[in-house]
């Protein structure tokens, strides 16, 4: 009797270990496929050129709109650090060509992924990339579901309600003093427990707990990335 019980326990443990190993292998394979897909989607894309011509067309000459973007190789590590949970909502304030939005959607199990971008040409590009991603994944429901959760909003981020988000990313290196001050005011509408990831800038408010600073690769080089949690 004892032997049977012992064998059952050992068998269950063994099965659990095999299951864990299998899911780790599957996860690693998925992330390789995702990386390959993302690189293919943005292969030879001139987002910076589109940003420049849009700024010329609309007579925008403030530094807040200087273009730069995330690198896929570092962005999933950056996001991983704030431990996204399934059913959480991610916002990218100033999403440009949508690299961070697509990377968040395809690498994590988020329920909604929103990118806000003022320049129409970049919004159009981001939407084209989502369409292209859809065509590449074919009937793969794993990716199709993730892609259907993405929404790109063509607007000034200062006019948008971001209060539903759990994780906010702002690639804010070029944002000037006034722009950054306005964005910090927007953060006050976030829920307690929300996390904010921001390049270069810092949040000076005791309602936000400073979590970490790391240096990560961006399209223009290595840059500081700060993370915060709303606690009050
Ligand atoms: C440095 S880029 C980051 C792009 C993207 N988040 C990434 O990391 O790959 C910043 C973007 O914010 C946009 N932007 C700047 N101010 C904005 C505003 N007030 N409202 C909406 N978008 C804005 C710019 O046009 C630009 O595309």
Task: Give a quick precis of the structure.
The chain is α/β, with parallel strands linked by helices and 232 residues long. It is built from seven helices and seven strands; from the N terminus they run αααβαβααββαβββ.
User: Would you identify the CATH architecture?
Assistant: 3-Layer(aba) Sandwich
**Amount of helix:** 40-55%
CATH class: Alpha Beta
Report, as a whole number of angstroms, the end-to-end distance: 56 Å
- Report the principal-axis shape: globular
CATH superfamily: Vaccinia Virus protein VP39
Tally the helices. Answer: 7
The SSE string, one letter per element, is: HHHEHEHHEEHEEE
Main sheet strand line-up: 3-2-1-4-5-7-6
Specify the biggest β-sheet. 7 strands, mixed
Could you tell me the strand content as a percent range? 15-25%
Question: Would you give the CATH topology?
Answer: Rossmann fold
Mean pLDDT: 95
| Radius of gyration using CA atoms only | 20 Å
Give the names of the bound compounds.
S-adenosylmethionine
Number of strands: 7
Unreliable runs: none
Q: Could you say which structural class the secondary elements and strand pairing correspond to?
A: alpha/beta
User: What's the domain count?
Assistant: 1
Describe this protein's structure.
- This protein is of the alpha/beta class and 232 residues long.
- It has one domain: Rossmann fold.
- 46% of the residues lie in helices and 20% in strands.
- The chain contains seven helices and seven strands.
- Strands 3-2-1-4-5-7-6 form a seven-stranded mixed β-sheet.
- Strand 6 and strand 7 (221-230) form a beta hairpin.
- Helix 2 runs antiparallel to helix 5, helix 3 crosses helix 4 (99-107) and helix 5 runs antiparallel to helix 6.
- The model has no long low-confidence stretch (mean pLDDT 95).
């Amino acid at each position: 009797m004892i032997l049977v019980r012992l064998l059952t326990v050992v068998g269950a443990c063994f099965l659990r270990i095999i299951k864990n190993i299998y899911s780790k292998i599957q996860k690693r394979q998925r992330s390789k496929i995702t990386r390959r897909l993302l690189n293919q989607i943005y292969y030879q894309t001139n987002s910076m050129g589109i940003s420049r011509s849009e700024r010329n067309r609309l007579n925008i000459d403030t530094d807040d709109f200087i273009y730069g973007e995330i690198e896929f190789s570092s962005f999933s590590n950056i996001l991983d650090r704030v431990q996204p949970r399934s059913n959480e909502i991610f916002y990218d304030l100033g999403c440009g060509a949508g690299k961070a939005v697509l990377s968040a959607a395809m690498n994590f199990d988020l329920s909604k992924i929103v990118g806000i971008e003022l320049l129409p040409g970049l919004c159009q590009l981001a939407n084209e990339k989502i369409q292209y991603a859809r065509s590449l994944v074919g009937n793969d429901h794993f990716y199709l579901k993730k892609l259907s959760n993405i929404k790109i909003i063509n607007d000034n981020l200062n006019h948008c309600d971001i209060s539903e988000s759990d994780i906010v990313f702002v690639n804010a290196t070029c944002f000037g003093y006034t722009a950054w001050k306005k964005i910090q005011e927007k953060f006050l509408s976030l829920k307690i427990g929300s996390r904010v990831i921001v390049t270069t800038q810092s949040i000076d408010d005791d309602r936000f707990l400073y979590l970490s600073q790391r240096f990560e690769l961006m399209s223009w080089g290595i840059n500081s990335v700060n993370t915060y949690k709303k606690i009050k």
